[in-house]
Amino acid sequence: MSSGYCFSFGPWNISEGADPFGPTVRPSVAFAEKLRLYKELGFDAVQMHDDDAVPEIEGKSAAQVEKDAAEMKRMLDDEGLVAEFVAPRLWEDPRGVDGGYTANDPECRVWAIDRSKRTCDIADVLGTKMIVLWLAREGTYIREAKNAIQAHRHLLDAINAMLAHNPRVEIAIEPKPNEPMDQAYIPSIGHAIALGQMTDDPARVGGLIETAHSLLAGLDASDDMAFAMAAGKLWSVHLNDQNGLKYDQDKSFGSANLRAAYNQVRVLELGDYPQTGRYVGLDVKAMRTQKADVAHKHLANSKAVFERLVEKVRSFPADIEEQCRASRDYEALEMAVLDHLLGK
Ligand code: GLO
Ligand code: MG
Predict the structure, then answer these.
(1) Mind listing the pLDDT tens digit for each residue in 3-53?
(2) How far is the CA of 68 from the centre of ligand 2 (A)?
(3) Which residues contact 318 (CB under 8 A, 6 or more apart)?
């Protein structure tokens, strides 16, 4: 049975396995080879950073950027793939060291906005409207480092500049409370949607919710998704999992907390997410221990778990839910959910 959902992942989800404590453990997989894997693993769309689409973007003129993006579009077409979104990768450039949009150095802020405008140009060429803003270094290690009120206004200026530069793009903010920063400025979907409402064109600003990011903020990812859906602002998801409050683990979907995964799928079903035409994105990492020839299993596994949970949600007895709610017997409802998940 087809679940009706369409899936995406990012090329960085097939990685060499480096971590802050050790070097790479697997050889690099060429970009073209990664693209070839998409369909094989059952995926239709590619999440992209601007410099995934146009490598070494910084040395290139606007015309060259568009030319290279057109070449990337041809590569995607040849594989029968589409770009889900493009995201400006500000956090790897030296000028983004103190955040790009919120850097104290005005020259860095100008650079960040210019680079983001190029990202919008690339999205046009790749045929997607969506820009994702993961605000990696837009925050502080110590509060005294920035004027936080001004910093939020700088974020608004940057988003407004992108909206004005390209009237077609829509911006999905991907909130995350910490890492790499001690404190990020837009730590939750509530902040993201509120910031969107403060922009010049609120209809063109929404959100992307990543499971691990909600958990790191001490929030429930399914309720975060519900909040965004109630506002018509859930424009993508990054499903994964997280074992407690530690570094951002990007574990396979459902691998740490199957019940929480079930509830994320349930809320997407309640909100008729497939009807919105939006993708179910995965943002998952292979374990560092994984050998090169099997370092993509986390993607297929996450998708398989998602699809099996769709079946679980769809086959949950609605009458039992209704009765338990009517009699306010949530112990019985909980047991019914556990029975269902355990296969009784
Ligand atoms: C990191 C983020 C990152 C973004 C990606 C797209 O914690 O989840 O993977 O999703 O860079 O902007
Ligand atoms: Mg993500």
Answers:
(1) 899 999 999 999 999 999 999 999 999 999 999 999 999 999 999 999 999
(2) 25
(3) none
The SS3 of residue 306 is helix
Residue 185 has phi, psi (to 5 degrees) of -75, -30
CA of 134 to the centre of ligand 2 (A): 7
103 lines ligand 1 (CB under 6 A): no
Q: Would residue 52 show up in a list of annotated catalytic residues for this protein?
A: yes
Helix (H, G, I), strand (E, B) or coil at 17: coil
Q: Is there a contact between 302 and 252 (Cβ–Cβ < 8 Å)?
A: yes
Which residues, by Cβ under 5 Å, contact ligand 2, an ion? Answer: 210, 238, 283
For residue 284, how many other CB atoms are within 10 A of its CB?
25
CA distance 75 to 260: 37
The CATH architecture annotation of domain 7-315 reads Alpha-Beta Barrel (3.20)
pTM above 0.85, yes or no: yes
